[in-house]
Design goal:
The model has no long low-confidence stretch (mean pLDDT 90). By secondary structure, this protein is mainly α. The chain has seven helices and no strands.
Length: 197
């Protein structure tokens, strides 16, 4: 965590969670991304807090866009990616600001808050850019509740976002606490995951 030079298990968990983004593995918007970004802010220090999740997500976006979405006629790069990455930065900042010394309930709540912020932020960007939505309060409400005609209601995606934000955040924070307790019992300081000040 902050102050550590090398945390291979945390990177491994983030890589595993990133791989779980592959389309069809999880329900729509049931994503580990929110927790990856939020917990990077909690547990990684300096440039790693920003670079590790963004590099993992960018590489996975390129791979998914090339192999899954490009054959369907979509571009490998899209303007929407800029908005998503700006929101990822906000999730990292939220984790960094909250800090890891909070209780598990507060940290899981932070993961849920981050997922909510991402949902409303990304749907607002869609509302602004998609001509199907009127640029009124009613159009915005449509974008975050019922969504587009012919698609599942956006509110279902909201539910998946909040639940996955809580679940994946809980997995990471309890993994950190477990590793710390095991290392403390062993008295092994070489790979101890120090708590942040």
């Amino acid at each position: 965590m902050k102050g550590s030079n090398h945390i291979p298990w945390l990177f491994g968990l983030m890589v595993l969670f990133t791989a779980m983004r592959w389309p069809g593995l999880l329900p729509s918007n049931f994503s580990p991304v929110y927790a990856i970004c939020f917990c990077a802010g909690l547990y990684l220090s300096g440039w790693r807090a920003w670079a590790v999740p963004l590099v993992l997500l960018f590489v996975s976006d390129l791979v998914m866009n090339y192999f899954v979405y490009r054959p369907m006629g979509y571009s490998v790069f899209s303007a929407g990616m800029i908005g998503s990455y700006a929101l990822y930065l906000l999730l990292i900042a939220l984790g960094w600001r909250l800090g890891e010394k909070q209780s598990p309930a507060v940290l899981i709540g932070g993961g849920m808050l981050g997922a909510c912020a991402f949902f409303f932020g990304s749907n607002t960007l869609v509302w602004l850019g998609d001509p199907i939505y009127t640029k009124t309060v009613a159009g915005w409400v449509q974008s975050v509740t019922v969504g587009k005609v012919g698609f599942p209601p956006a509110i279902l995606f909201f539910r998946n976002s909040v639940v996955s934000g809580a679940l994946f955040t809980a997995v990471i924070i309890f993994a950190v606490r477990y590793i710390r307790s095991v290392e403390a019992e062993r008295g092994d300081t070489s790979s101890t995951l120090p708590q942040n000040n």
